[in-house]
Amino acid sequence: MTTTKSATVLGATGLVGKSLTQQLLNDERYHQITVLVRKPLSVSMFHDPLKKLVPVVIDFEQLQDYQGYFTVDHVYCCLGTTIKQAGSQKAFRRVDFEFVHVAAQLARAQRASGFVWISSVGADAKSSNFYLRVKGELENAILTMPQLKHAAAVRPSLLVGDREDVRTAEQLGIKVGKVIAPLMLGPLKKYRPIEAADVAQQMIGLQHF
Questions:
Q1: How large is the angle between the packed helices 196-205 and 15-26, nearest 10 degrees?
Q2: H runs (alpha helix) in the chain
Q3: Among 103, 160, 180, 202, whose Cα sits 20 to 30 Å from the Cα of 147?
Q4: Model confidence band, residue 182 (pLDDT cutoffs 50, 70, 90)
Q5: Of 84, 135, 149, 175, which one is the catalytic site residue?
Q6: NAD(P)-binding domain: from which residue to which, for each copy (predicted)?
Q7: Residue 3 DSSP symbol
């Protein structure tokens, strides 16, 4: 008899999170997908004929109070914002560093067998760029965390997909990136724009089954 897995997803309504959650629902290796969200999901957001999806509305400011939802095989963290959306560097760090770090700690405490999250190409704790510095600091904090099994980060470049929010600068970067992508070879290949669905697939591939 095949043993199926359970997973918890944070950030299931974002660009990568949506694709990831749907891929998990379609994956016969999983029998239950818990998604932690800020507000109730639209019934049309996901195709879930086997009723695997368990949406749970939580207060992310009190994420540590929901540790029971991390008693799963795999935890996927797709949380992320922009400085513009967050309103300040401090608010950005709260989401992109603190929330993700707490999620990793909860995954460790509940002995999840895998924790995968989204970082960024160019992440570097010593970077002069605030965004990349925060991403790098988070990688260092999680990857050196004792007793956290199979922690891994994906490091995408610009994400391609249908967003609800309009990010003008990012959209321009994607358009330019698509044009020059064929020229981005060797070490530059990692900077090519990437489909959100491909990032989600990479995340699943990093888990241990």
A1: 50
A2: 15-26, 83-86, 89-93, 100-109, 130-143, 168-180, 196-205
A3: 202
A4: low
A5: 135
A6: 11-133
A7: P
